[in-house]
Fold each of these.
Amino acid sequence: MNRDIGRLEKTAYDLLVIGGGINGASIAHIAAKRKMRVALLEKGDFASGASSKSTKLIHGGIRYLENLEFDLVYESLKERSLQLKVAPHLVKPLPFVIPVYKGDKRPLWMMRLGVLLYDLLAGRHRVQPHKDLTREEVIALEPGIKQEGLAGGVIYYDAQMDDARLCLENVLSADSFGAHVANYVKVTSFIKENGRAVGVRAKDVLSGREFEMRAGKIVSTVGPWTNELLRLDSPGAKKKVRTTKGIHIVFKGQISRHALLLGSQSDRRIFFVIPWMGNSLIGTTDTDYIASPDAVKVEQEDVDYLVREARRVFPDLPFGPEKILATFAGLRPLVRQGGSANKVSRKHLYYEAPSGIIFVVGGKYTTYRKVAADCVDRIRRVRGKEAFSIYGGGAITETAEEAGRRSGLDGATVQSLMDLYGSRYGDVLKLVESDPSLGERISDDPPVIKAQLAYAVRTEMAQTVEDILARRLSLIFRGPVSERVRAAISSVLLKRQ
Ligand SMILES: Cc1cc2nc3c(=O)[nH]c(=O)nc-3n(C[C@H](O)[C@H](O)[C@H](O)COP(=O)(O)OP(=O)(O)OC[C@H]3O[C@@H](n4cnc5c(N)ncnc54)[C@H](O)[C@@H]3O)c2cc1C
């Protein structure tokens, strides 16, 4: 991808999308595929907002059944099925065990009814049928959990994703259809003519340069920053988004064999313990947050809450700070409404301001394609019928060993490229074929070769060490990052300048 600020300035766009999280990326992708001249601006890195801070689930959201949001769950289950097909390298089926204890706020019969309903709603989009479990069956599946008071459980199926990369794949897809995309460009104000927004003033965060851009239509997909953008458009605008904070802990090592859905004892919330990147993801919290979205961070009390609840189910496990590999905090950009934070609906809406700017408000990651397609339909006033596909989601027609022989790499390295890049692993292999020194490994677990760093910078528009460690290769969630890896990344970034 080519980050060309001069081109952004010179082109008159049909559509300017502000915010490079999953919603902005997919709107840019679908609009470009429908032959619109599209620009996508992101003030940080792509997916650096909520879209890399999720629980990494492409799911119907079993807990929304409690709120009787059957339409949202149905829609999400349909989208889950589509995402499993279009991005098989990034979205994978995941079994969930729900152990239920005597005295739990949600008794066993309720859980059993819940998963039955979930599967019925999924219909032909079901991943695999759920199953009721006896106490002994739960213990056989998850021998590490507390057995005292265990009543039984259920197993059901959802999907796990790599949120940062799925967002990036949509940006890459947008670029492949001709959209002009740039990260580290912040929109600072709107240009208006007769009260209508006709463009923006923006700042290239990397160079400090300010410039103007023109577009027939502007869409804001800034998620948790929506209230800020609304006020940038009209100082007296009413807030439309309620931001609630959710944090996750990345615990060293795999705590459980399956993903676990657990009810907290201290409130009625549920939380997950999920095998993730060789470690375990524990989350999440859900608390109102009113400060600037830029300042969101993990507080000790958030960590204490999750550790306390996880320790209840795994009383024998050490949860000391040495076991916590990483933590991260994100904000849910929910449609503004009252009530307790975890009861607020995950539905989305489009708000068209008097200036003509469309604000996408609310939603969840899982339904991003639908949110984007509906948004583009709205702009074009015609329903698009194109098939949805993403950058690396094509079929892989050779084995890792075969591809490895061609490029001089071992099968394990090529397999890890296939897992990360899907059908575009060949892009990275081509770099090695043209310069064999790029085949050198800089890490063994997981295998990482120099070509991936070059690819992250040249093709995936990575600008900083963190872009690569957190969102291109996810290395900070796998284990301590070695000095060798950091030095190799710094050297690639330096050479680019
Ligand atoms: C803790 C947590 C767990 C979640 N778990 C799940 C889950 O498991 N499954 C699921 O389906 N959903 C989940 N969600 C919800 C999901 O993550 C969000 O709904 C989704 O990521 C929102 O995407 P977005 O593109 O609207 O916002 P974001 O990803 O936040 O993107 C908005 C972008 O706009 C940019 N921006 C802001 N201001 C400007 C400006 N002036 N100029 C340019 N760019 C700007 C920001 O930098 C940001 O990158 C979770 C959310 C949280 C917080």
Amino acid sequence: MNAIAGQRLLVIGGSSGIGLATARRAAAEGAQVTIASRSGERLRSALADLPEGVRAAQLDVLDEAAVERYFDDEAEWDHVVVSGAETPMGAVRVLPLDAAELAMRSKFWGAYFVARAAKIPRHGSLTLVSGILSTRPRPATGLQSAINAALESLGRGLALELAPVRVNTVSPGIIATPLWDAMDPAEREAMYARQTHRLPVGRVGTPEDVAAAILFVSSNGFATGTTVHVDGGGLVAV
Ligand SMILES: NC(=O)c1ccc[n+]([C@@H]2O[C@H](COP(=O)([O-])OP(=O)(O)OC[C@H]3O[C@@H](n4cnc5c(N)ncnc54)[C@H](OP(=O)(O)O)[C@@H]3O)[C@@H](O)[C@H]2O)c1
């Protein structure tokens, strides 16, 4: 039997991109999947794209009290994945401070609130999603680098604090998801083309590439305190 089959899995950020691909794959493998995010409309359109039986919950990880209430009201989750965050990007001297603080609150503190509140049994797991910038900063990404590094560090610490619950982080490189929809389409295509040329694998990532890694760390009972890089070789590329 597949390790994830029959298990209760919550994907926060499951209405789009990496989270949606994780939910789809987990459901295909027989897990009892719930997706959570802020927008009811996004959740409904994701559900239409997922197998029958997948549930949805409206939840904003910025709202600490709502996160606590949600986990109190629900049964234990075998596996929790945090892929939901809103992360405005920009150079330290350009990005308005409120946007910078929102990015940190959403991606770091959101995951922190979930880690505090989630009820996960001894055999279960918590998986966070960081990003390649934690270790390979680019010009004008100091904030994102710091957030992702903090998240990976949090994951390692939680692997000890929450043990025997396993806690891991998956760190994607450039993945083609709706995250980039706000970009000018021509600029986005140019970015994808540059990455395709630069990366050893010769392509940008898909949400499914990352979903496979998330489900690997969720279901492998000997994986904890680790960061799995899924970046097409972005860390070693020139
Ligand atoms: N795509 C990449 O190239 C890439 C690279 C490195 C790291 N990452 C990281 O991977 C994670 C997932 O990114 P993605 O590419 O899958 O993005 P995406 O397609 O934009 O999906 C983001 C998801 O997060 C949810 N979300 C946003 N803010 C939330 C909040 N406050 N509470 C609950 N849910 C929230 C969104 O739904 P609602 O709008 O309904 O809330 C959506 O489901 C992010 O942490 C991102 O930084 C992505």
